[in-house]
Amino acid sequence: MRLPSGFVQPRPPRNRSQAYAGIQPLSAFQQHQRFEPLPLPLGLPPYHFDLATVLPGIEASAGQLGHLTFHVVGDTGGVKDPKYQHDVAALMKQDLSKPSSERPSFFYHLGDVVYFNGEHKEYYSQFYEPYDHYDVPIFSIPGNHDGAPLPGDTSLSGWVSYFMTPAPHIDPISQDAPRVTLALPNCYYTLTCPFVTLIGLYTNVPEGGSVDSVQQQWLTNEFASAPESKALLVCLHHPIYSFDDHHSGSPRMADVVQHAINDSRRVPNLVLAAHVHNYQRIEKNIGGKVPTPFLVAGHGGYYHLHHLNAEDGAVDPNTGARLIKGSDRRHGCVTLQVDAQAIRGTVMLAGESGQPAEPAFDDFTYPASPLHLPKTITAAL
Question: What DSSP element (H or E) covers 281?
C-alpha cells in the first residue's frame, strides 16, 4: 500500500468506544506491530501464582481485616519526563503509611512497565528507582511496549528479567533501589488472593491486541474454574472499550473475553485495562441485573495523556458502552478494596495542570458475588 506523503493514522470518531466494528481494517501502519512469540513458561498450566508465596500470612491477615486492598494502574514508564511517574509513585507510597485496614498489600501493573521497547537497561530509571521504598510486591502483565523488541533483542526479555526469574534474586541493575525479582509462572497467569481471583492476559504487541488459541483456551478454563467464593477480575493491557481520540477500544479483545464468558457462563465482576493514557470508568450491561464495569487505568506516569472523545454519561450507540467518569488531564492510580460482598474503588489523581492532588476523584462500588450469564443470553461485547 502506497501512502500519500505525510499521511498519519486517522483519529477515532467522537462518542465511540471502539474505532471500528468487527473486522479490523488492514493498514500499512500495522507492519511494525507484529505478533511476537511468547517466552517459555516457568511453570505448568494452569499457571497459578498464590499471593501467599510472596506475602506469607496474607490469608490470615486479610481474613482478620475482612478485605484485601491493592493498587492498580498501567503505562507508568517515565521515559521522557519522569516527573509524572514519580508523582504517582509518591501518592502510592503515601498509602503505605495508612493504618493496616487501608494499607495496600501489593501493586498490580496493567502493562507498559518500560518504554519504548521494554529494554532491561531501562528498568532502573523506569521501575526500580520510582518504586524505591514502595515496600510491597509489584505484579504485572506485559504491555505492547514491554513486548516490542529492538533489533537483535527478544520480545519481553526485560520484563522476564524481573517478573519471571527461576531463582528470585536482586538484579545488579537495581543499584540503590534493590527489589527481589519474582518467579511468575508465565506472561499470562492467575493471581490467587484472599477474596479475589485476578486473571491476567498478555495481549501482545499488535494494535488492538492479539491472543492465540492456546491462551484463549486457558482463559475460558480460568473463567470456568474460578472459585465461586471470590470476586473475578480480568486484567488485560488493550482495553475492550475506550472513549479516547488516540487508540480507542478493541473489538478483538471483546471477542476474546466474550468467548470466555459464553463458553464458561461466568461473567467477570470487573475488567481492568490500560494502553490508553487516561482514566475511564465504563459500564456495559452484558445480560445480568447489574452492568459490568470496565476500567481503563493507563494514567500511571507516561508523560503523554490521551484526550477523551466524549463527556461523562455518553453512550456509544454501536456497543452500548457508557462512559461513567473520565479524566484526561492528570495522572494517578486506582485503589481497590475487595471483600466477600463488594469491590470498592478509589481513584487518586496527582496535582498537575494547575490543579491540586485529588485523593478521591472517583469512588465506586460493585458486587463481588459470582455473576453468571442467564441461560437464554449470549454475551456480545
Answer: strand 279-284
Phi, psi (deg, nearest 5) at residue 209: 80, 160
The predicted pLDDT at position 11 comes to 83
Beta bridge partners of 325: 281
Cell of 277: 493514557
Between CA 151 and CA 153 the distance in angstroms is: 6
Q: Could you identify the residue written with the cell 521501575?
A: 127
CA atoms within 13 A of residue 176's CA, in its CB half-sphere: 0
Contact between 126 and 109 under an 8 Å Cβ cutoff? The reply is: no
Q: Which DSSP category does 291 fall into?
A: P
**Is 149 exposed, middle or buried (CB count within 10 Å of its CB: 0-12, 13-18, 19+)?**
middle
* Spatial separation of the C-alpha atoms in residues 381 and 379, rounded to whole Å: 6
* 157 dihedral zone (left: phi>0; alpha: psi -120 to 50; beta): alpha
Q: Are 339 and 67 in contact (CB under 8 A)?
A: yes
SS3 for 47? Answer: coil
Helix (H, G, I), strand (E, B) or coil at 216: helix
**Interacting residues of 277 by C-beta distance below 8 A, sequence separation 6+:** 75, 246, 298, 299, 302, 304, 305, 306
C-alpha span between 332 and 313 (Å, rounded): 21
- Tell me the three state secondary structure of residue 128: helix
Q: Residue 234 and residue 346: Cα distance in Å, rounded?
A: 18
User: Which residue stretches of the chain are H helix?
Assistant: 58-65, 83-95, 123, 144-147, 157-163, 213-225, 251-264
How far is CA 300 from its chain centroid?
11
- DSSP 3-state of 215: helix
Taking only the tens place, the pLDDT of each residue in 42-70 is 999 999 999 999 999 999 999 999 999 99
CA–CA separation, 182 and 56 (whole Å): 15
Pick from 231, 348, 253: which is nearest to 301 by CA?
A: 348
Which residue, among 9, 22, 6, 1, has the nearest Cα to 249 in the 3D structure? 22
Report how many helices (DSSP H) and strands (DSSP E) the chain contains, helices first.
7, 16
pLDDT tens digits for range 108-127: 999 999 999 999 999 999 99
CA 284/CA 369 separation, integer angstroms? 18
